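Per-record layout

source: Microvirga splendida
name: Cupredoxin family protein
length: 161
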Amino acid sequence: MKPTLTLTTGLAALLLTTGLAFAGPGAAGHHDKEAAYGKPGDPKKAARVVPISMKETDDGKMVYFPDKVEVRTGEQVKFVLKNNGKVDHEFVLDTIESNAKHKAEMQKNPDMEHDDPNARRLAVSKGGEIVWQFTKPGTFEFACLIPGHYESGMHGTVVVK
């Protein structure tokens, strides 16, 4: 009897052999529902616009500007992201602990792409948006988890009061 190769098995084998990695549902940092730091916002509703610039500095640091945002519990925010740097950057909004776990996964899979309700990876000169409603008070983090970027200073905080 010949072994059969199912479509699912074949696809899994293809992904493993090509080195492609995609963040799947439930992976650290990827949320479609309410999480400890809130939930995806409704783009049809009013939101406070917070522009976030991503770039490298002349002294070798990688930064967000601003690197601290304060919001009220229940507030909906539209982060308008712009990569003004010379390399790809990302914006991953999550708890500090979850970002630390996700950063470790990114070390293993540096080509992981992000286009989730709480995360965007942006090429040079590109922009994007994340609409998020902060439903609980606390201090949360946005970070670039591309290997080496966090260590170069690319992280910031959201303080929800």
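summary: Confidence is low (pLDDT under 50) at residues 1-30. Residues 69 and 158 are 5 Å apart (CA to CA).
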